[in-house]
Amino acid sequence: MPITETHELHKRRLGRNVGVALSLVGFAAIVFGLTIAKIQEGASMEAFDHQPRVSITPLTEGGDQ
Question: Where are the transmembrane segments (predicted)?
């Protein structure tokens, strides 16, 4: 026999689930927006990994590296 009447507990759970889902979607949107802003800014994407990189080493007085 199927349950046709929803209990008040189910309605409260649904409200909480919707709230958690909206929070998760909002967090994902913030992370996505920050990622897009970082890519569009054109900043250097090189991370510091303890390896010397020619593109970030300062120039010497002679102008050559």
Answer: 20-37
